[in-house]
């Protein structure tokens, strides 16, 4: 009797396992058959550009990590079904290093690449788009802001009022450059301005290289005061190729790749395919960002240079 029950149990388990495997195979087959044979890969850069992605938590703004964007770019470059890429930019800029990492990955892409400016593609948002083969912008999107900024906080007046004193021990005169406990010295201002000028010169060169033959040089020189431009104004300068929407960018990318399509090309989202991964990751990153924000009141070495 026990032997019969064991045999039945084994058979039921085996049948259940076969059903699960069969269902998985069927779902995979449906997905494979439904998936487009060729598509335009869409990579979204949404938020402040940083080296690490974060939801921003309760008190901060979301950031988009350069590592994740570079991963998506490399994925698009390696996939046979992705024939072209649209970089959908909605970012005010951010980290100089992170912006350069994304820029370099875009520049190295061999497949046709089109940048699309949705709401904001300013400063670092434009920097990462400069190597694109073609740039499409919404007419009222904000772009431009070609420049570099570094900000020092001087809270010494507040500290004096509340009786908060700092004593800093340092190995060199400039070790605490950027401290919020005192105003910067003239020497520190000169050092930081030299850094700003150097990075700005690189930014200018990146734009000139990416838009070679397309810039109105006189108008371009005028907007190097870091002013913000609308998409229409940017087109007059030569920073944008066409005023349009996302469909315009997708059609242009597909055309550059010689793809065949009717009304518009098929799209492959290069972001995470598993929504639960993004949800759990976002929760963890939000908690970490909030803790860093609350614990990062640092009185020394607070130097940050950004494309914003």
Describe this structure in words.
Residues 274-281 and 291-301 have low confidence and may be disordered. 45% of the residues lie in helices and 18% in strands. The protein has one domain (37-307): 2-enoyl-CoA Hydratase, Chain A, domain 1 (Alpha-Beta Complex). The chain is flat. The longest helix has 33 residues, at 2-34. Helix 2 runs parallel beside helix 3 (96-108). It is an alpha/beta fold and 308 residues long. It starts with a helix and ends with a strand.
Give the secondary structure arrangement, pairings included.
Layout: H1 2-34, E1 39-46, E2 48-50, E3 63-65, H2 66-78, E4 82-91, E5 94-95, H3 96-108, E6 113-122, H4 124-127, E7 134-137, E8 142-144, E9 149-150, H5 156-162, H6 186-210, H7 217-222, E10 228-230, H8 231-237, E11 242-243, H9 246-256, E12 267-269, H10 275-295, E13 305-307
Parallel strand pairs: 1-4, 1-12, 2-3, 4-6, 6-7, 6-8, 7-11
Antiparallel strand pairs: 5-13, 8-10, 9-13
Helix pairs in contact: 2-3
Major sheet: size, sense and barrel closure?
A: 8 strands, mixed
CATH homolog superfamily:
2-enoyl-CoA Hydratase, Chain A, domain 1
The class by helix and strand makeup works out as alpha/beta
| CATH hierarchy class name | Alpha Beta
The percent range for strand residues is 15-25%
The overall average pLDDT, rounded, is 84
Looking at the structure, what is the overall shape?
flat
Output the keywords:
three-stranded antiparallel beta sheet, 308 residues, 2-enoyl-CoA Hydratase, Chain A, domain 1, eight-stranded mixed beta sheet, 45% helix, 10 helices, flat
């Amino acid at each position: 009797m026990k032997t019969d029950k064991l045999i039945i149990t084994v058979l039921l388990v085996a049948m259940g396992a076969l059903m699960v495997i069969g269902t998985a195979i069927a779902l995979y087959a449906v997905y494979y058959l439904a998936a487009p044979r060729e598509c335009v890969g869409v990579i979204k850069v949404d938020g402040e550009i940083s080296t690490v992605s974060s939801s921003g938590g309760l008190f901060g703004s979301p950031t988009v990590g350069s590592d994740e964007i570079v991963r998506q770019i490399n994925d698009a470059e390696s996939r046979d079904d992705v024939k072209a890429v649209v970089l959908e930019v909605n970012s005010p800029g951010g980290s100089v290093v992170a912006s350069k990492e994304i820029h370099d990955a875009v520049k190295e892409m061999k497949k046709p690449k089109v940048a699309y400016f949705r709401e904001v593609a300013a400063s670092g948002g434009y920097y990462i788009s400069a190597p694109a083969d073609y740039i499409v912008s919404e007419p009222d999107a904000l772009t431009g802001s070609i420049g570099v900024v570094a900000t020092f906080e001087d809270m010494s007046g507040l500290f004096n009022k509340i009786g908060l004193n700092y004593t800093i021990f340092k190995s060199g005169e400039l070790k605490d450059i950027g401290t919020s406990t005192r105003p910067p010295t003239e020497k520190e201002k000169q050092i930081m301005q030299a850094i700003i000028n150097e990075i700005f010169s690189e930014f200018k060169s990146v734009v000139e290289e990416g838009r070679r033959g397309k810039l109105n040089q006189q108008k371009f020189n005028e907007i190097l005061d870091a002013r913000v431009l609308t998409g229409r104004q940017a087109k007059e300068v030569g920073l944008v190729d066409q005023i349009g929407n996302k469909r315009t960018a997708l059609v242009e990318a597909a055309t550059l790749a010689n793809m065949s399509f009717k009304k518009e090309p098929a799209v492959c989202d290069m972001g995470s395919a598993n929504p639960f991964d993004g949800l759990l990751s976002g929760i963890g990153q939000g908690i970490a960002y909030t803790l860093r924000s609350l614990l990062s009141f640092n009185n020394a070495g607070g130097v940050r240079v950004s494309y914003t």
